Amino acid sequence: MGFGDLKSAAGLRVLNDFLADKSYIEGYVPSQADIAVFEAIAGPPPAELFHALRWYNHIKSYEKQKASLPGVKKALGKYGPADVEDTTGATTDSKDDDDIDLFGSDDEEESEEAKKLREERLAQYESKKSKKPAVVAKSSILLDVKPWDDETDMAKLEECVRSIQADGLVWGSSKLVPVGYGIKKLQIQCVVEDDKVGTDMLEERITAFEDYVQSMDVAAFNKI
To answer: Which positions fall inside the Elongation factor 1 beta central acidic region eukaryote domain (predicted)?
Structure first.
C-alpha cells in the first residue's frame, strides 16, 4: 500500500489517479491523512495532474489550521492504493539487481523477465483504474447559521441542523463563532454531491427551524 515516492513524477501520477474519485485521502473532510501526504510532496503537481493539483491547492488552504484537523498521522505508506508498493522507507545507497520498479525509467537496463513482469503489473493497474466509477461532482460548503439571540440553545440548534439528512449530503466539523453582544453563530461544514443537494435546499431546510435559526449564509464554497 502506498503512493511510492511522492517527490517523483511516477508517485504524483499514482496520487492523481487515486484522487480521481475522491475528495480527500481518507473520508469526506480534511484530516491528518491529507496533511501527511501533502507534506511529502515537494511542491504543486503539474497542471496535467489536475486531480492532484486540485487536492493540493485545497489542502494548502488549511495550512494554518492543519494541527486542528481530525485524525492521527500514520506512516506515509499506510495511505494510498493497495496495489502500489510503498517505497518511502527504501534506502537509495544500493539497488538489488532483482528489484523491479513498477514505474522504472526507460533508460534503465532490465532483464526480459523483469520487463515482462513490470508490463503485467502496469496492465493490472490500468485495468483496475478503468473499472473505477465515474467521477461524481462534489462541493465542500461552509455554512454560517445565526440564532435569534444570546439565549438560543446552540446545542439544540446544531442538533436540528445535523438532523437534516439527504442523499449526497455529509455533515462535517463545526464550531461556534462569536459575532458580538454575547451571540455566537454555528459554523458547520458539509460535503454535497452537486446534482443532488444545493445551497437553496440547505437554506430552506435549515431556516425551517425558525424557533432557533434566524438566517443561514454560505461562508465558503469549494468544488472538490
So the answer is: 102-129
